[in-house]
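Batch manifest, entry 17 of 40.
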Amino acid sequence: MDGEGIRLDRPKARRRSPLPRWDPEAFGRASERIARFLGTGRFIAWMTAFVASWLAWNILAPSRLRFDPFPFIFLTLMLSLQASYSAPLILLAQYRQADRDRVNLEQDRKQNERSIADTEFLTREIAALRTGLGEVATRDWLRDQLEDLRREPDGGRSAPRPGGHGEPRPSEERDR
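Output type: structure tokens
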């Protein structure tokens, strides 16, 4: 080959299409707006007014100005056309909403997992603090000890001191 053949290290150039190209996201947003409007009372009121005026015109207008006589075939065609476009737009809007819901559900699930992990960590930390506090002399424990010493007849002086095993300390010998 002369070097200008098929190269596997480069993507193929896009083919030109005779069809118009549009942004699917923009189309989806537009379909959601239309679907939201189709589900409102305003749409029903406008559609009712449209059909009523159509029927009134084609019943009450002079014969030469009527464009859709009694079986109202053209009106039926217009309503069918509107329905044939409405249904896919509503479905597209529902699919997009389902995709958003799925993403939100996944984010909520991840947030819940993080919250559970944080809660478990905090529970372990609180348990460690409680264990550590169990080894520390608290104010209530010290009060109880002082109250016990005060109740003893000799004021707790006869009890052996820690580190001395009952023997007076050098500082106590000087005091005598």
